[in-house]
Amino acid sequence: MTENKDARKKDILRELVSSYILKESSGSSLITVTEIILGYKNNRVTVCCTVLPQEKEKSAMEFLQRKRRDAEQFIRDNSRIYPTPLLIFKIDLGEKNRQKLDEISN
Length: 106
Fold this sequence. Notes:
Blueprint: H1 2-24, E1 30-38, E2 44-52, H2 57-66, H3 68-78, E3 86-91, H4 93-105
Parallel strand pairs: 2-3
Antiparallel strand pairs: 1-2
Helix pairs in contact: 1-3
Protein name: Ribosome-binding factor A
InterPro entries: KH_dom-like_a/b (IPR015946), RbfA_dom_sf (IPR023799)
């Protein structure tokens, strides 16, 4: 039962964070939510993202950190998740490594 609840919560959070980023970003870079990692007791959520082009990663992460509280408020307003978790944004290094392996193998 808990696994289903966690999976559903991840899906809802991924959808809401993606919607918020789409609505608030300038469009100069493509920010994609690749994974949601729930922390202990779901108080913290790590949002793994990829950014294209890669040169814009730093500015995209600054944007996400600056808008973190607004994203949490967006989740609060558009879901029934309680308590609203603290969002932590990170670049998805696993996805970057996978892309490098694809380049090497081709």
